[in-house]
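Protein Entry — a single chain follows
Fields — amino acid sequence, structure tokens
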Amino acid sequence: MSSHSESHSVVEFVHAGYCLPNGKRLLEDVHLEVREGETLILLGRSGAGKTTALKLINRLLEPSEGQVRVEGRSTLEWDAIALRRKIGYVIQETGLFPHFTVEKNISVVPKLEGWDAERIKARVNELLELVGLPAAQFRERYPHELSGGQRQRVGLARALAADPGILLMDEPFGELDPLTRAEVREEFLTLEKRIRKTIVLVTHDVAEALLLGTRIAVFDGGRVHGVYTPREFLDSDEPEIAAYRKQIRTREDLEGV
């Protein structure tokens, strides 16, 4: 497994665990670091603990044991609102406010941060261009007037609005049809290089993990089975990893990885 560590950790899980109030354990003894500027993929089956781990980072959940640290501080030491404003969050169904225009949706956090109107407008225009939606054409539209792929792009723009250092993405392309998903994924690959954020992305799609990830953390039964670069993942002879690779051997979207 990969051991090189050129950049420092932005997020660290230290013996982190999470239990539901009824005692059911969703995460157990998780050790994991997210390095500055990387895209760390959390890969695993449904119920493996990926989304739970993601929500511990922005304190939507709090660890039952151990610690999750952001920029060296336990999430419990952060003011929860201040922490969340430092972290962009993109979910599968985008979570856009249906009664807000695209511009108003993207403006939410900058307004809370006290930005002036001119600065907000400039940022909205900049982000819409960045995600491939010309501002003049899309700024005044409402979510119901957009396609699924366009809504996902607006969700990403909103998450980037206040220029957070960390971006959390939970199955961000999961509800898109296969063709749109492939397109948006390719666009995101280009965008990754331009925005230079620390990204944690949850998926159960192996090809997506290999295409987008700097490293891949494989979750199984609430634990981290291992962390791999895409090349290490493809070369691994571990049975658990071989089972994942079997999914993609016949899939054309692996080509070029």
